[in-house]
Amino acid sequence: MLKSRPLLTLLLLFVMLLTSCKVRRVTAVRETTKTYTELNNLDISRRLKLGIESWLGVPYRYGGKDKKGIDCSGLVCELYKLVYKEELPKTVRLQYETCKKIPMRKLREGDLIFFNPETKDVTHVGLYLSANKFVQASVSKGVIISDLGNTYYKKHVVCGGRF
Hints:
CATH architecture: Alpha-Beta Complex
Shape: globular
Structural class: alpha+beta
Largest sheet: 6 strands, antiparallel
CATH topology: endopeptidase fold (from Nostoc punctiforme)
Oligomer: single chain
Strand content: 15-25%
Helix content: 40-55%
Number of domains: 1
Number of helices: 5
Strand order of the largest sheet: 3-8-4-5-6-7
CATH class: Alpha Beta
Distance between the termini: 68 Å
């Protein structure tokens, strides 16, 4: 039946494609709106808010450091350059090795947070904001604001760092 009606088949596929994309777009808009609200409710400097706002939703790309895609260490470097006018080492490993280590209870705005999600080595970094929140470049969600109270992050956090 479908072979005899290629136009109908094509139209049906087109409608299915449009519908599925719309659902994803609506979900992404809701997530982004929620994230902007969360960001605006944080007690952090205006300069940092604006810096983060310009990166929210940018997709993750290993080795990336622009709006087409960015990784965790690239995000931290770009935010530090924009907000604090400081150049940081380019990789998570170098950031970890060169910063002053601080306990998690002493974190303040702009401190780095290091994680070891896959191995014993530190392989992920985020930037602490306030109220247990941090900004990161997530492999699956891109640049987002996350909560250190989340079970996953509690399990994998190593320490804070300060430059």
